[in-house]
Amino acid sequence: MTLILSLIRPDYxxxxxxxxxxxxxxxxxxxxxxIKSVMLxxxxxxxFTGMAAVLVPNTGFQQTDHWLMSQLSELxxxxxTDDACDLIQDxxxxxxxxxxxxGISKQLAFVGVGFTTKTTxxxxxxxxxxxxxxxxxxxGKPLPHITERFVCARFVCNDNQxxxxxxxxxxxxxxxxxxxxxxxxxISKTADPREYVKILKDSIREVSARLESSKPPIxxxxxxxxxxxxxxxxxxxxxxxxxxxxxxxxxxxxxxxYGETIETAIPRVMSQQQPMFxxxxxxxxxxxxxxPHFVNPGxxxxxxxxxxxxxxxx
Length: 314
Fold this sequence. Notes:
Helix content: 10-25%
Largest sheet: 7 strands, mixed
Strand content: 25-35%
Low-confidence stretches: 236-258, 305-314
Radius of gyration: 19 Å
Order of helices and strands: EEEEEEEEHHEEEEHHEEEHEEEE
Number of strands: 19
CATH architecture: 4-Layer Sandwich
C-alpha cells in the first residue's frame, strides 16, 4: 500500500506519495510510476492508498485515481473543500458497498491536504489535512478492520505550528521520531518548502528499504515519488495557474476579471505564489516537473504531465 506523508503549516502544505502498485494477491510489483494524486483547483490535493482499482457498476474496474477525478469533476463551481471531502466520503462508501456485494472488501483511504475554502461561516483560510478512510476512526487512528462507512478525520494547524501524518502507519517509532526531529529542526531555521521535501523523500525511501529487506520482503512502498506543494491562497482563490521551474499550464477555465485582458492577467497570476509539483524517479535525488491529475470544479477533469521547456499540456 502506498505510503502518503502529509505536512501542513500556516503558510503552505506538502504531500508526498510513492507511485507503486503491487498485487494484493502476490505482493509483486505491477507498476512503479502510477499517478495517485488529484489536484482540486488550487486549494487541495488528494492521494489514495489501498485498492488501485474500484468496480464501477455497469462499467467494470476503473483505476482509483481516474475514479476520483470523475467524482470530483461533478462538483459545481461554488463547491468548497468541505463539499469535496463530503463527496469523496459518500461516493467511496457507496462504491465499496457495491463491491462488497460481489465479495470484494479491501482497505482504501484518501488523504487530502490544502486550505479550507473561505465562506461566511469560515472567513479564514486554514491549512487542513483530511483522512477519508474505511480503516481509520474519526480521529485518524488506524483500525484492525474495515468499516462499513468511510470516516472523514479533519485536522487543522494554528499559527507557528505544523502537523505531519503518515497513512498507512508504515513508519515505526524510531522512524517517526527521526522524521519529527528533522522537521522541528528545519522549521526553526527556514520556511523554504523544498527543504521539507528532501526530508519527506528520505523518510519514505527509508521505510521502503526497510520493508524490502525484511524476510519475506514487503514491496508495498516504492521509491519513485510524487510531491505536491500548495502555498496559502490569495484573496482570489478562483484563479488557477500551475507552474514548475521550466513549464507552466493553465488548468480548466482561466477567469479573467471584467476589464482585464488575458495578456495582463497571466503575468499578474504568475507573480502570485502557485502550487508546485515534482517527481523523483526511483533511486534518484534529482526531481523533474510532473503534475498530478487536475480537477477544476465547473470545468471538468484533466490529466497532464508538465515537461521541462513545454508551456502546454502534453
